[in-house]
Amino acid sequence: MSLSEVAFRNRARGSLICEPVPTARLGFEYHAHIQGLARQAAAGMKNDKSITSPTVLLQVTDPHLHAAADSKMRGVNTYDTLLAVLGHAQQDERWPPAAIVATGDLVQDESRGGYERFKSCFDELGLPIYCIPGNHDDPELMHALLAEQPFQVGGEAVLGAWQLVLLSTFVRGEDAGAVGAEQLSALDSYLARNTERPTMICMHHQPVAMGSAWLDGVGLTDADEFLSVIERHGHVRAVVWGHVHQALDEQRGDVRFLSTPSTCAQFLPKKNFFALDDKPPGCRWIVLHADGSIDTTVDWLQT
Ligand SMILES: [Fe+2]
């Protein structure tokens, strides 16, 4: 069973909700379109030789948007800070990336208006926007409102020499997350069938301890099982996530584990109780090289 089929089954059961990708989007036509967008956007990726070129990604995470433009969370107008981060990224010499990955908590108030606001921030950029749900999201609304290109919720994508897996860790009613047995099995099968490309897995919840008791209490409850699966597949070279509102860059064997600051407020690292950090909004640039290596930097908004 494929990852997307598991997503459909889980969605139907209403238990572990993994975002389904409509059947039409799984066909060659959709992926060709997305890859076409990526090729147009990625500098130096204009012909078949592009497979040896680096692929540049921008990760934004945890924007926590609301239906109202002036809503704040923890004292921050999250709409303003998302726009500021995107504006800052567009001034970077690495712009445009081949795609943007948005790793969850897109919306704070689970509102239709929040997702429409998210959509309005991204749909004119001319880039594929890969999305996964976070614990604050409403996966059904997300799927309904981000169903059209350039958005893709869940599934897989090929970008240059790499492939991305957009893995849902959403569990209804919980702040913690889980991949779930069925999705883990599907992931294992997918990775066994698709071994040619270095692979980056994008998710919301952290699969490794962050060293904060409160945050690690709402991490990935089946992290050990997830790590066992990716250990079996040497072409998995990176795992990136959001949720923790702070930066981490850790190499474990051949796998790079990366967390990324929110586009709004940050959490103080290594604290056992919740505390805000005074760091500004941020995002992460990820350069995926054809040989499987990675260059990455966190970009903090200048204040
Ligand atoms: Fe968040």
What does this molecule look like?
The chain has 303 residues and is an alpha/beta fold. It has one domain (3-300): Metallo-dependent phosphatases (Purple Acid Phosphatase, chain A, domain 2, 4-Layer Sandwich). It is built from 9 helices and 16 strands. The protein has helices spanning 3-13, 23-26, 28-41, 78-90, 112-122, 139-145, 181-193, 213-216, 223-231, and strands at residues 55-60, 72-73, 76-77, 99-102, 129-131, 151-153, 155-159, 162-166, 199-202, 236-241, 248-252, 255-259, 266-267, 276-277, 282-288, 294-300. The strands form 4 sheets. The chain has a 6-stranded mixed sheet with strand order 6-5-4-1-15-16. Strands 7-8-9-10-12-11 form a 6-stranded mixed sheet. The longest helix is centred in the first third of the chain and has 14 residues, at 28-41. Fe (ii) ion binds at residues 62, 64, 105, 134, 243, 245, 262.
Task: For the structure shown, list the relevant keywords.
single chain; alpha/beta; six-stranded mixed β-sheet; 16 strands; globular; binds fe (ii) ion
SSE blueprint:
Layout: H1 3-13, H2 23-26, H3 28-41, E1 55-60, E2 72-73, E3 76-77, H4 78-90, E4 99-102, H5 112-122, E5 129-131, H6 139-145, E6 151-153, E7 155-159, E8 162-166, H7 181-193, E9 199-202, H8 213-216, H9 223-231, E10 236-241, E11 248-252, E12 255-259, E13 266-267, E14 276-277, E15 282-288, E16 294-300
Parallel strand pairs: 1-4, 4-5, 5-6, 8-9, 9-10, 10-12
Antiparallel strand pairs: 1-15, 2-3, 7-8, 11-12, 13-14, 15-16
Helix pairs in contact: 7-9
The structure holds fe (ii) ion (FE2).
